[in-house]
Design a protein that fits this description.
Layout (H helix, E strand, L loop, with lengths): L2 E5 L3 H13 L3 E5 L2 H10 L4 E4 L9 H12 L5 E5 L4 H9 L4 E4 L4 H19 L8 E3 L2 E4 L4 E4 L2 E3 L3 H11 L6 E2 H8 L5 H18 L6 E4 L3 E4 L3
Parallel strand pairs: 1-2, 1-3, 3-4, 4-5
Antiparallel strand pairs: 6-7, 7-8, 8-9, 10-12, 11-12
Length: about 230
């Protein structure tokens, strides 16, 4: 069974997450502060760490813990689950190496789905690749089995949320996806500015590989579309 660590300083919230995940068949251990979690997890890494950012008196304790865990393991799945939904925190968390950044208004069912998706992707990446049904859009290739995206033959390091957003846009090039459509397909429920932040980060990741990349169009007042050029 997969072992999950929950680092959340509010007892009721932490226990709620633990109950839900245990009902899904996971082995779950909760921590209320960074220091106890860090000492324990560095000695015995879990299969997934779910971390709040503000932990007790440490306003950025979750960031500190993420850095320590990422220094120990480059492959440990890490999710930030926090009430802080501003762009600076989101970008900071993802740059530290988190696999996803979710806000606490996500439902328990969608949190469970996101965790399942991360484990599914991890399993696929560790399994010898077989012939898969790839989605090809010019220089873009999407591998749904491995939840992986490549551009010009180079793998784009996307979070699970970013993968689903790219998938939603590219599956029907030229068709406008409203923000609600993107949220439904990515299984996230956030405000418009957060979707905008995700799209900005996705563009930047493609631009690192191809400085002429311009395939994600903003359709003002409506949403976004993948433009096949």
């Amino acid at each position: 069974m997969k072992k999950i660590a929950i680092i959340e300083d509010q007892d009721a919230i932490r226990e709620n997450y633990i109950d839900m995940l245990e009902s899904q068949g996971y082995v779950v251990k909760g921590y209320a502060d960074r220091i106890s979690a860090q000492d324990d997890l560095l000695a015995n890494l879990p299969d997934l760490a779910i971390i709040d950012i503000g932990l007790g008196d440490e306003i950025d304790g979750g960031f500190m813990l993420c850095q320590a865990l990422r220094a120990k393991s480059q492959t440990l799945p890490i999710i930030f689950l926090t009430a802080r939904d501003n762009e600076i925190d989101t970008v900071s968390g993802l740059r530290m190496g988190a696999d996803d950044y979710l806000t606490k208004d996500i439902s328990l069912a969608h949190l469970a789905a996101r965790i399942s998706a991360i484990f599914r992707r991890q399993l696929a990446l560790n399994t010898p690749q077989q012939q898969a049904q790839l989605i090809e859009r010019g220089e873009l290739v999407i591998d749904p089995e491995r939840m992986q995206v490549t551009w010009q033959g180079v793998t784009i390091d996307l979070t699970v949320t970013e993968y689903w957003l790219v998938h939603a846009l590219a599956i029907r090039p030229g068709h406008v996806k409203q923000r609600n459509d993107l949220m439904n397909e990515a299984k996230i429920y956030v405000d418009d500015s957060t979707i905008t932040s995700h799209i900005k980060r996705i563009r930047k990741k493609f631009l690192k590989i191809d400085d002429a990349f311009d395939h994600i169009d903003t359709v003002y007042g409506m949403g976004y579309r993948w433009e096949a050029k």
